[in-house]
Amino acid sequence: MKQSLIELKNITKAFDDNVVLDDFSLTVNENEFITLLGPSGCGKTTTLRIVGGFERPDSGRVFFEGKDITDVPPNKRHINTVFQKYALFPHMNVGDNVAFGLRIKGMSDSQIREKVKYGLKMVNLDGFERRRIESLSGGQQQRVAMARAIVNEPKVLLLDEPLGALDLKLRQEMHYELIRLKNELGITFIYVTHDQEEALTMSDKVVVMNGGYIQQMGTPEEIYNEPENAFVADFIGDSNIIDGTMVEDYNVRICDTVFPCIDEGFGRNRPVDVVIRPEDLIIGKPGQGKLDGEVIHNVFIGVHYEMEILAGGYEWLVQNTVSFPVGTKVSLDVLPENIQIMHKPKSKEEEAIETDV
User: Fold this and answer.
1) 298 contacts 268 by C-beta, under 8 angstroms
2) How far is CA 198 from the centre of its chain?
3) Who has the most CB within 10 Å: 86, 129, 247, 276?
4) Domains identified in the chain, total number
5) Is position 66 within any domain?
6) Is residue 231 part of a domain?
7) How far apart, in whole angstroms, are the C-alpha atoms of residue 344 and residue 219?
């Protein structure tokens, strides 16, 4: 069982009249890669800054290894931060940038040289000590920022959208580098992003946030395959989110057609939200599936074809490796286990969440 390392308890934070976090609580375990995922303004960066000591909560407490560190300044915490803009010193070479925090700690030159060499080796920048910052690519600069954080031997590394300025290929390469570093160093990572691919690729745990609240927390597989509400389903990957009626356990009516499902406990003839992922819809000949329809849009996006199919009065988003030209008459079906049933929102808070989708 993993040991709890950081606890945020009942954190509230507002800027002027804008409440960014509202009675927010979160536990981060040792050697965990946890990602805070959500749209701009959801409170994820504020959460990171509170953990790092750059912001103080209006109420609530922050604990590190069981000790209250709410009032402890950033430089006294065993935590380092890598920002999106890296904050490297252009007048210093790579080695001096990496050594900056070590010099402040008063380490000897020999200790610093050894740690700088180790840090650069960990990020695959051996021999870059004398390189100037402006001569490096964006990916290399990001690695220097990582090395500068690593050599301070933090127990926690905070990363605030550090890959945002990189192109797609570099971002994908850095995903694997971050996973490798986490596994080799045993550091706890708290990562902030609005990019769902980053969250699903790297994380042990994903925390989906919106409006200062946690919408869902779980493994990438749980978040993707079992979204708890329409916001999560819509934000994580593509989804068809449809009004439905739970006829009874294991049967749901969608588009005036009853589909078998694996869900129970929603009552009889109760309105529900139904989520079906585009890749889970089965395309067949007319009459083969539950719904007959027609392809009204088709675009090739590299790995598969993305189509819109009008069936049962609903425009379904469908992804398939086989192309069906616009105008083709088809049928749609879905396996029971690929139908996700969710309660309709009831509280004002839930209704506000749904409105934001």
Assistant:
1) no
2) 6
3) 276
4) 3
5) yes
6) no
7) 23
* 50 in the same domain as 177: yes
Q: Rounded distance, CA 123 to CA 28, Å?
A: 25
Inter-CA distances, 292 with 114, 286, 322, 333, 335, Å: 68, 6, 18, 9, 16
175-227 pLDDT, tens digit per residue, is 887 888 888 888 899 999 988 888 998 899 999 999 889 999 999 999 998 89
The dihedral through the CA atoms of 210, 212, 216, 220 has a sign that is positive
Q: Report if residue 87 sits inside a domain.
A: yes
Gyration radius from the chain CA atoms = 24
Amino acid at 68: D
